[in-house]
Amino acid sequence: MPIFIVTVVLIATLAVLAYPFVVRRTRREGLDDDAADLAQRLRRARDRVYEEIRALQQEYFLGNVPEDEYRELLRTARRDAASLMRQQEQVQQTLEEISGDVEQELQQSNAQAPIPTKDDPTLP
User: CA 45 to CA 52: how far, in whole Å?
Assistant: First the structure.
């Protein structure tokens, strides 16, 4: 019994110590997180609209939805899907612009501050 308790305490201690390292590796930070979350929410919303369209078509073909109502609901769902697609495209364009700006700033920064070499007399 004492061996079991020691083993459990040891495993719990290792889990507590390893947790920050595991979480840090799996978690993205910064702008990428927010943009990825937004893109994922938009994709899920678009998928829900597509599912609504499929369900609406099924109900229409079964005769449960009148044609006028079907056409109106279908038009609205298609508009929603198109709007979500435009939003996704805007997010993607914004991310690409930001990425390009960051890359350009890094290149400018590297051009202004040359990398020191071993023969550089300013190094200690």
Answer: 11
